[in-house]
Amino acid sequence: MTHYIQVLTTLPTADTARAMARKLVERRLAACVQISGPIESVYWWQGQIDSSSEWRLVAKSRTDLFPKLEAAIREDHPYETPEILAQAILAGLPEYLEWLHHELAPAE
Q1: What CA–CA distance (Å, rounded) separates 65 from 69?
Q2: Distances in Å between the alpha carbon of 23 and those of 34, 40, 44, 56, 91?
Q3: How far apart are CA 62 and CA 38, in angstroms?
Q4: Whose C-alpha in 12, 13, 54, 106 is 20 to 30 A from the C-alpha of 19?
Q5: Is the sign of the CA dihedral 91, 105, 9, 32 positive or negative?
Q6: For residue range 2-59, what is the model confidence (pLDDT) as tens digits?
Q7: Closest CA to 107 of 60, 66, 57, 73
């Protein structure tokens, strides 16, 4: 059975979010990337509480593609330490999972 994931990251602007989403889909590392925002993030950074407006990306992919997907996010990400989190997809509509499988890079 193929294992699917959703990968979450955040970016500082709508333009950087759109560019990242397009890159991940063009490289077939994600079958779909949803962009939402702006969101407000409050977090610890360099010893103090900070906050910023960000745009959230959720990329639908496969577990075996995560290393390449992570590398693709890191290469253009403007943050020193970007949020890159993978969440397992435990179940889904079979037709959707088949579409997801079909649209991603071939398994290695």
Answers
A1: 6
A2: 13, 24, 29, 15, 26
A3: 27
A4: 106
A5: negative
A6: 699 999 999 999 999 999 999 999 999 999 999 999 999 999 999 999 999 999 999 9
A7: 66
